[in-house]
Amino acid sequence: MGTVNLVKTFSQSLGPLITGILVEKNLFWVAFLAAGCFKATYDIGMLLVFAGHKTREEKAIEDINQERSDQPADEERR
Question: Which pTM was predicted?
Answer without folding.
Answer: 0.58
